[in-house]
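Continuing the series of single-chain predictions for the mutant panel. This is the parent chain; the variants come on the following pages.
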Amino acid sequence: MTSLGYQKFTAAFLLTLLLLCGAGASFGQQLPGGFQLPQPGAGPGPVATGGGTPGKVIDDSTKNIYGPTTTEFFFENDILNNRDSARYFVDTLLTDFHRWTFLEKAGDKLVDLGNLGTASRPLFFQPRDEVGVRFGFNAFHPYALRADEVRYFDTKSPYT
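Parent structure:
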C-alpha cells in the first residue's frame, strides 16, 4: 500500500469513527421508558416525555405513593351476603408473627410426628361431633384451607 493510499484510508477511518462516536453520544442522553436526563438549566430529576404530561417531574422517591391503604381484601362470604363494598385493609402489625407453624397457630393444642406437614392429632380428647361413618383422614385437617378463610386481594400496588 502506498503512503497516499494509507493516508486516505486513515482519514476515512477516523472520519467514520468520529461520526459513530457523535451519533452514539446523542442517543446516550435518552433512558429506556421515555425518560430523558435533565438538560443544563432545567429542574432536577427525570422528566416524563412519552405518554404522560410533558415536562411533569415524576416524584415517587420523596412521596409514599404505595402503602397498606392501596391493598385491600375481601372474603367470599362478603359477596354471597351482598356486602360487595366490604373491603378490609391488610394488617401490617407483627402480632403473633413468630407463631408460623400450624401447631403454634392452633395454640399448641395439636401433636404431630415432629416434622412440619406430618399427620397431627389433638393433644386432648375431642368427642366426635357428627354421626355416621368417618373416613379417618382427620390427621391432615389442620393443614386444609377452609373456604371462609380465603382472602381475595384487590391491589393497586406491588404486594408481597
